[in-house]
Amino acid sequence: MIRPALLALPLLLSGCATMSPRVAGKGSCSADELADYAGRPATAKLGEEMMQASGSKVLQWIQPGQMVTMDFRSDRLRVKLGPDNKVASVSCG
């Protein structure tokens, strides 16, 4: 009886993941040109545009209150979202 429940656990937990990091781009991230993205709704297309504009390889969406690691990655673009699921701020690292 316990085994079927354990097998279903990964499926149930996968529903908890909201937006995981995406990988693409050239390399080193630069958020200098991304101020105009603030206030726009978070979509996959917007993420692709921001990665292209920043030159980042990795995109990380950060929900309000979400815990993130403190490690620095020069190729990562971090997009903090507001409670309305719109871009609040953008940074590299």
UniProtKB/TrEMBL annotation:
Keywords tagged on the record: Signal
Source organism, top-level taxon: Bacteria
Endpoints of the signal sequence: 1-19
A Pfam family: Inhibitor_I78
Keyword Signal set for record: yes
PANTHER family noted in UniProt: PEPTIDASE INHIBITOR I78 FAMILY PROTEIN
Protein name, entry field: I78 family peptidase inhibitor
Species in which this protein is naturally found: Sphingomonas arvum
Upper taxonomic lineage: Bacteria, Pseudomonadati, Pseudomonadota, Alphaproteobacteria, Sphingomonadales
